[in-house]
Design goal:
Blueprint: H1 5-15, E1 26-35, E2 38-47, H2 62-69, E3 75-78, E4 84-95, E5 100-111, H3 124-128, E6 138-145, E7 148-155
């Protein structure tokens, strides 16, 4: 019998009154914040990740492609390749209701690794010549500055 840890955690949280759904391999998380009747939307696109261990670029080159493919994203989050980095890219967004252009950062995040890849002596990662990965993930915190919600990314160890 198979057990899905994600489905199990969601079920426990829902039994406790939560409203949790398990996402797919890729998808969107939309966060809507309200303040004084105004609604601000933050869009996060996630994907498990793909590709190999890009020794020189560390996968950073994919940020340009993701920026083009997901122009409505405020955060673009990837995993899979055990790289860990954060690149905020400034972008212009047309605000049709306000008839103006706004500059906002799009935060590109690679989640890093949650396990050591071998002991640098033997094993699959050593045979493939992979670098020692940076462990840990990222914290994303929201604060209010004036009437705007501001997102800050910091490294989690």
């Amino acid at each position: 019998m198979m057990v899905s840890p994600l489905d199990r955690v969601a079920a426990i949280l829902n039994q406790a009154g939560g409203k949790v759904e398990v996402g797919g391999y890729a998808g969107w998380i939309v966060i809507r914040s309200r303040r004084a009747g105004a609604v601000q939307t933050t869009n996060l696109h996630y994907h498990h990740g793909y590709g190999g261990n890009a020794k020189r670029s560390k996968g950073v080159l994919s940020a340009d492609i993701d920026q083009k493919d997901f122009p409505d994203a405020d955060f673009i989050v990837r995993g899979h390749d055990h790289q860990k980095w954060h690149i905020p890219v400034m972008t212009d967004r047309l605000l049709p209701r306000k008839l103006r252009v706004e500059q906002k950062p799009v935060h590109h995040l690679r989640l890093g690794s949650y396990k050591m890849l071998g002991d640098r002596f033997a094993g699959w990662a050593t045979e493939k010549g992979f670098s020692t990965p940076r462990l840990g993930g990222w914290w994303i915190e929201c604060s209010l500055q004036g009437d705007d919600f501001v997102w800050e990314v910091s490294e989690a160890q």
